[in-house]
Every structure is written in structure tokens, then in C-alpha cells.
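Subject: design request, 76 residues
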């Protein structure tokens, strides 16, 4: 999951991640810091509870997060 925006201490907007990259408009394809190809599935924007967040794997660089946000106007 990619946390896009925090609402409060109990909820977040997230975009689901996939290891399958697709050449579609609602997929944002990138390579994570460990070199694995990933895709943020922008059509899968969801609100989740803090209880679903157990651990951070890595933090996406701010420039890359800005690219994700720019790709789809509905992301906060």
C-alpha cells in the first residue's frame, strides 16, 4: 500500500501496489529502492484504518510521490 494522505490518527487514503506492471492509464509503473518493478494501481484508491498498517517497507521519494499524484487528478 502507498499512503497518499492521512485524514486523522485513525484513517488514511491508500493506493494499492502490484508487482505486475501494465501499460494502462491507471497504473503508475516504477522501480522500488530494492530494484523490484512495481505499479501503483490508481483505480484502487481506498480509505483504510490505522490498524491495517503494520510496518513500513520503504518511504517513496517525494519527487516520485508527486509524479503519482500528477498522473491522476483525483488523488489528494
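Subject: RE: design request

Done. Sequence follows.
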Amino acid at each position: 500500500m502507498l499512503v497518499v494522505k492521512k485524514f486523522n490518527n485513525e484513517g488514511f487514503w491508500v493506493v494499492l501496489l502490484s508487482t505486475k506492471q501494465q501499460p494502462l492509464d491507471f497504473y503508475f509503473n516504477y522501480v522500488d529502492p530494492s530494484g523490484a518493478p512495481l505499479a501503483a494501481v490508481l483505480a484502487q484508491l481506498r480509505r483504510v484504518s490505522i490498524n491495517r498498517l503494520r510496518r513500513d517497507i520503504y518511504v517513496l521519494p517525494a519527487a516520485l510521490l508527486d509524479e503519482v499524484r500528477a498522473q491522476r487528478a483525483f488523488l489528494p
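The chain has one domain: 2-71.
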